[in-house]
């Protein structure tokens, strides 16, 4: 079974700091990578997608992908209390077909 | 901004009863999905649907489950004879294309089987 692994946390950061969330995946043929934010009792909300090695920035969020190391990360700059949520890494690739395979998520707590 | 909608938001049913969960995907999307999330666990893929047929299904999606696109807007998930272990949040998602397409999730239906 191909896996997507995340540290469950909680990761606690002070308001205004950079939060760094990490994800590793086992399917070397994976092609597409996504970060979702999930508030308690709510549905996953897409934050970022990344398909190529390197960095992709969108506002306060930066996704980083390293296919050789099978590693994807999400940086959140100037963290706000409203960023407190569970962050889900999801991967789509050759062996997965069209479906997303999710990690268990990392709980982020931003303390004011 | 277009969004995926789901009804009902919460469904309570007795074990052995049939339930139908409804979804309206984003209007110009072509690919539709159902996922579920048991409380405290990962989001799990159930089924994907394209061009009026199932394109992929997981081991969870056994003969008790079925999906249908009865008209041009709705996408439904039917569970024929619910079990206690079917209690979960069920999320519908849609995407515009399959090649790395971003999937957008609806708000979910919380299914409680008693």
What is the oligomer described by this structure? heterodimer
**What sequence of helices (H) and strands (E) makes up the elements of chain B?**
EEEEEEEEEEE
Residue-averaged pLDDT of chain A, rounded?
94
Shape of chain A: globular
Number of E-type strands of chain A: 11
Q: How many helices of chain A? A: 0
Q: What is the makeup of the main sheet of chain A? A: 6 strands, mixed
Structural notes for this entry:
- The complex is a heterodimer of chains A (112) and B (114).
- Chain A has strands at residues 4-5, 11-14, 19-25, 30-38, 45-50, 54-58, 61-66, 71-76, 85-93, 101-102, 106-111.
- Chain A is mainly β and 112 residues long.
- In chain A, β9 and β10 form a beta hairpin.
- In chain A, 37% of the residues are buried.
- The model of chain A has no long low-confidence stretch (mean pLDDT 94).
- Chain B is built from no helices and eleven strands.
- In chain B, strands 2, 4, 5, 6, 9, 10 and 11 form a seven-stranded mixed beta sheet that branches.
- Chain B starts with a strand and ends with a strand.
- Classes of the chains: A mainly beta (112), B mainly beta (114).
- The A-B interface holds A 31-32, 34, 36, 42-46, 49, 51, 88, 90, 92, 97-105 and B 31, 33, 35, 41-45, 48, 50, 55-56, 58, 89, 91, 98, 100, 102-108.
Give a brief rundown of this model:
The complex is a heterodimer of chains A (112) and B (114). Chain A has 112 residues and is mostly beta strands.
How is this fold's topology laid out?
The complex is a heterodimer of chains A (112) and B (114).
Chain A (H helix, E strand, L loop, with lengths): L3 E2 L5 E4 L4 E7 L4 E9 L6 E6 L3 E5 L2 E6 L4 E6 L8 E9 L7 E2 L3 E6 L1
Parallel strand pairs in A: 2-11
Antiparallel strand pairs in A: 1-3, 3-8, 4-5, 4-9, 6-7, 7-8, 9-10, 9-11
Chain B lengths: L4 E3 L2 E4 L5 E6 L6 E7 L5 E8 L2 E5 L7 E4 L6 E5 L8 E8 L8 E2 L3 E5 L1
Parallel strand pairs in B: 2-11
Antiparallel strand pairs in B: 1-3, 3-8, 4-5, 4-9, 5-6, 7-8, 9-10, 9-11
């Amino acid at each position: 079974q191909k896996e997507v692994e995340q540290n469950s946390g909680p990761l606690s950061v002070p308001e205004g700091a950079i939060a760094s969330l990490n994800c590793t995946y086992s399917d070397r043929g994976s092609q597409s990578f996504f970060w979702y934010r999930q508030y308690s009792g709510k549905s996953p909300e897409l934050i970022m997608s990344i398909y190529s090695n390197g960095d992709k920035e969108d506002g306060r969020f930066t996704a980083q992908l390293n296919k050789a190391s099978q590693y994807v990360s999400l940086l959140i700059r100037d963290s706000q209390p409203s960023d407190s949520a569970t962050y889900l890494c999801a991967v789509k690739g050759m062996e997965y077909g069209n479906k997303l395979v999710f990690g268990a998520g990392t709980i982020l707590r931003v303390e004011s | 901004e277009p969004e995926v909608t789901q009804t009902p938001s919460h469904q309570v049913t007795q074990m052995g009863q049939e339930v139908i969960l409804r979804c309206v995907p984003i209007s110009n999307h072509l690919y539709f999905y159902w996922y579920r999330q048991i409380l405290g666990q990962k989001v799990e893929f159930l089924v994907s649907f394209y061009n009026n047929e199932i394109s992929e299904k997981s081991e969870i999606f056994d003969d008790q489950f079925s999906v249908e696109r009865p008209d041009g807007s709705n996408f439904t998930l039917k569970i024929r004879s619910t079990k206690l272990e079917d209690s979960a949040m069920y999320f519908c998602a849609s995407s515009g294309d399959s090649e790395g397409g971003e999937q957008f999730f609806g708000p979910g239906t919380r299914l409680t089987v008693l």
